[in-house]
Amino acid sequence: MKTILITGAAGFLGSHLTKDLISEGHRVIGVDNLSTGKMSNIEGLLKNDNFVFIQENASSEEWLLLNSLSDVREIYHLASPASPKYYQSAPLETIAINTIGTMHMLELARRTGAKMLFTSTSEAYGDPDVHPQPEHYRGNVNTWGPRACYDEAKRLGEVFCYEYFHKFQVDVRVARIFNTYSAGLRSDDGRVISNFVEQALTGKDLTVYGNGMQTRSFCYADDTIRGLKLMMEKESASGEIINIGNPTEYTILELAERVNQITGGNCRITFHPLPVDDPKQRRPIIDKAKNLLGWEPVINLDEGLRRMIQVYRSANREEDR
């Protein structure tokens, strides 16, 4: 049994990962300040002897001196708002968790000898002028705009990881995660898939920003979590940045039409102004993940949407009772 620390443990991916690792017999210390995470995501774990929850911010220092952290062998640093809706409403906190918080986790890894995985983002590529995106592409990011608090903070978090790896030999790995979704994504998250599914199931218009021709690649959460666990497990991932995402690309308009089809609805699609700095295209090259991890996604968009829609539909029925 390993002791594993997960920041952002009550969030979308963090709670999924926490449950997986506990089911495998590990002890998990979960940290979350509940700014975007929800206790309902982990309430079923609170009586589990292999789970300890600490309600703290990873960018604060006090809790890092707890004796219980001395046995930590792996650190997954997932804490951060990930939806524009949330990180743009808390820009300074978003910057802090991805920079100061990342440095704190690296210091903890240095002190305990733990391995660490930092979840960065495809937003590190900005609005890319290289398509699809390999890990060596340096990106096209605007530092003076409403998305910079997230994507630039993640990029600086990667720099911290680089320095600790080279200066202190901390065993760190960086995952650049592309759009991830599943039934666990909260319906008010504000990201495109949760928006469309919630709108379709409640008979509202599907709101497309821009002309709908911008593209994204959508990876089901089970595949993303499997990729993160392999990155932690494989020594070949040490000191590497690796794209974790689905390389199949869809336009936003295609996504809206698929959601309409799978929900059995016929919602009207409406068009609205594109947000500032919204990327026009996004698709990962995952050759590195295939070669170093033996990983690639196995759940296609239609299957993932069916799973997600089924759970959302059941939740809406429960609310109506």
Automatic annotation (TrEMBL):
<feature type="domain" description="NAD(P)-binding">
    <location>
        <begin position="5"/>
        <end position="308"/>
    </location>
</feature>
<dbReference type="GO" id="GO:0042732">
    <property type="term" value="P:D-xylose metabolic process"/>
</dbReference>
<keyword id="KW-1133">Transmembrane helix</keyword>
<keyword id="KW-0325">Glycoprotein</keyword>
<keyword id="KW-0472">Membrane</keyword>
<keyword id="KW-0735">Signal-anchor</keyword>
<keyword id="KW-0210">Decarboxylase</keyword>
<keyword id="KW-0333">Golgi apparatus</keyword>
<comment type="similarity">
    <text>Belongs to the NAD(P)-dependent epimerase/dehydratase family. UDP-glucuronic acid decarboxylase subfamily.</text>
</comment>
<keyword id="KW-0812">Transmembrane</keyword>
<dbReference type="InterPro" id="IPR036291">
    <property type="entry name" value="NAD(P)-bd_dom_sf"/>
</dbReference>
<dbReference type="Pfam" id="PF16363">
    <property type="entry name" value="GDP_Man_Dehyd"/>
</dbReference>
<dbReference type="InterPro" id="IPR016040">
    <property type="entry name" value="NAD(P)-bd_dom"/>
</dbReference>
<keyword id="KW-0456">Lyase</keyword>
<keyword id="KW-0520">NAD</keyword>
<protein>
    <recommendedName>
        <fullName>UDP-glucuronate decarboxylase</fullName>
        <ecNumber>4.1.1.35</ecNumber>
    </recommendedName>
</protein>
<comment type="pathway">
    <text>Nucleotide-sugar biosynthesis; UDP-alpha-D-xylose biosynthesis; UDP-alpha-D-xylose from UDP-alpha-D-glucuronate: step 1/1.</text>
</comment>
<dbReference type="InterPro" id="IPR044516">
    <property type="entry name" value="UXS-like"/>
</dbReference>
<dbReference type="GO" id="GO:0070403">
    <property type="term" value="F:NAD+ binding"/>
</dbReference>
<dbReference type="GO" id="GO:0048040">
    <property type="term" value="F:UDP-glucuronate decarboxylase activity"/>
</dbReference>
<dbReference type="GO" id="GO:0005737">
    <property type="term" value="C:cytoplasm"/>
</dbReference>
